[in-house]
Structure formats: C-alpha cells, structure tokens
Design brief:
Helix 8 (170-183) crosses helix 9. The radius of gyration is 17 Å and the shape is globular. The chain is built from ten helices and nine strands. It is an alpha/beta fold. The strands form two sheets. Strands 3-7-2-8-9 form a five-stranded parallel beta sheet. Strands 1-4-5-6 form a four-stranded mixed beta sheet, covered by helices on one side. The chain has helices spanning 18-22, 37-48, 55-68, 76-84, 113-123, 126-139, 152-156, 170-183, 190-206, 228-245; strands spanning 6-8, 26-31, 51-54, 87-93, 96-101, 104-105, 145-149, 162-167, 219-222. The structure holds 2'-deoxycytidine-5'-monophosphate. Residues 33, 55-56, 59-60, 119-120, 123, 149-152, 200, 204 line the site of 2'-deoxycytidine-5'-monophosphate (DC).
Length: 247
C-alpha cells in the first residue's frame, strides 16, 4: 500500500462527451439511514451518465476490515496502521456497483448487521473520516458524479451545484431495509433493523466530526409517499435546472 486508503473509480462509470463535460455538476445526496439515498443516487447517475459514489459503502468496508482483523478502534495507532492497509474500489459486477476491499468483493458482507452495528462508532473517528473524505473528493475532481452519504453536501463537496437532503418516515425506511436485506439473503429482525436505523441516525446527527445536517442550500425531498420513479423525476428536474446554470 502507498501509505493511505486508496479508492479507485470505475473507468466505465466515467462520463464522456465534450458537450456534457462543459456542464458537468456534482450532485450530493445526504439524509437519514435507509431512506433510499443510494437507490436515487444510482438512478440519477445512470440517467445523467455520471459516476456514482457510495460513501457509506466506504465506511462499511473500513468497519468490516476492523471487525475481521480485530482492530481496536479505540486505539488511534491501531486505526492509523489499519488505514494504511486498506484499499477500497468499486467495480461493476453483473451490472451492479460492487465494493471491493483489498481486492475482495465485499458488497454482500458490508451490508450484514454486524457491520451496521459497528459502522457508527467507526465512522465517527476523525482519522477514518479524513481518509475517506480525501478519497471522495478525489473521485469528484472531474465533477460529473452523484455521491450519497451524510456529509457530502456539507463537508465533502460544499460547492456541489445540487444538494438533496432525503428523508422518509422511519416505518417505511424499516420496511424497505427489511426487504432489501431479505432480497440479499440476509436474515434480520424487524425490531433490530428499526433500532439500528434510529441509533445510526442519532449517532450521525450528534457526532462532533461532520454531523448529519441539512446544508443551507439543500433541497429536502421526503419520499415516504413517492415511488422510486417519482423521486428520480424530481431529482432529475432539479439536476437539469442546475446544469442549465453552469456555463
Ligand atoms: O449509507 P449507509 O447507511 O450505508 O452508511 C453506513 C454508515 O456510514 C452510516 O450509518 C453513517 C456512516 N456514513 C457517514 O458517517 N458518512 C457518510 N458520508 C456516509 C455514511
């Protein structure tokens, strides 16, 4: 490793075309846990021919590494040494965006409850955030990216042309998460999922470093009663407005 967490973006995700390149913007999607940020971000990236960045997957991959390597996240030296050994990148696998940790496809394991239960304290560690934010900013250097997370519009890309804050009723979020996990063959109890969602939101909103909050210039979308297509159309229309403002 070359002394820092490295994160590579897929070449085939990179947008092309001289007309597009003049108007490429950054779309930051932040919001509460399990409210469909990544579903919206992926669909929007596809519609715009932009790259997609799943910042939560990066924090999950670090957490998985800490769990599997028994890294004590309370010991700063252990965290720093572990971060030196971590390489994260995204690849397309059967048409889906997959997260790779040190060359291994971890897309399924990073969604397991054992990771969801530890990701909040791990993602609150300033050294972890610093390493992730650096890589996320590198991913957006050429603009033309949709990234979702908790601090994308406030910390990672404060100059993003479009910032969306996504939220939904917690029961609806629990249902969606339950279905998503079941579809991946991951068994989890409804109550555990809801408790985990609420705890992760609480910790993300109350941590000292980069807390989850709405950026002053963000547009809030509550998708409790919206279909995926309806929320995509709202976001697409906002993106087109912002793109028209970029010369
Ligand atoms: O998006 P997600 O639920 O997969 O993210 C997992 C956790 O990572 C989430 O509970 C909070 C943390 N996270 C963060 O602190 N900052 C981000 N930009 C993205 C995620």
């Amino acid at each position: 490793m070359n002394g820092a967490v490295r994160c590579l973006l897929l070449q085939d995700f990179l947008p092309c075309g001289s007309m597009e390149s003049k108007k490429k913007i950054i779309v930051a999607i932040d919001g509460h846990s399990s409210c469909g940020k990544s579903t919206l971000a992926k669909a929007l990236a596809k519609a715009l021919h932009y790259a997609y960045g799943d910042s939560g997957a990066m924090y999950r991959a670090v957490t998985l590494y800490f769990l599997d390597q028994a890294v004590d996240y309370n010991v700063p030296e252990a965290v720093e040494a572990a971060l030196e050994q971590i390489e994260i990148h995204f690849e397309r696998v059967e048409g889906q965006n997959h997260t790779f940790l040190n060359g291994e496809d971890v897309e399924r394991s990073i969604r397991e409850m054992r990771v969801s239960e530890l990701v909040s304290p791990v993602s609150a560690i300033p050294a972890v955030r610093k390493a992730m934010v650096r890589q996320q900013q590198a991913m957006g250097k050429r603009r033309g990216i949709v990234m979702d997370g908790r601090d994308i519009g406030t910390v990672v890309f404060p100059d993003a042309e479009l910032k969306i804050f996504l939220t939904a009723d917690v029961d609806v979020r629990t249902s969606r998460r339950h279905l998503e996990l079941a579809a991946k063959g991951i068994d989890a109890e409804w109550d555990d999922i809801m408790q985990n969602i609420q705890e992760r939101d609480f910790i993300a909103s109350n941590r000292a470093d980069s807390p989850l909050r709405t950026a002053d210039d963000s547009v809030t979308i509550d998708n409790t009663l919206l279909s995926e297509e309806e929320q995509l159309q709202q976001a697409l229309s906002l993106a087109q407005q912002r793109m028209a403002m970029v010369v």
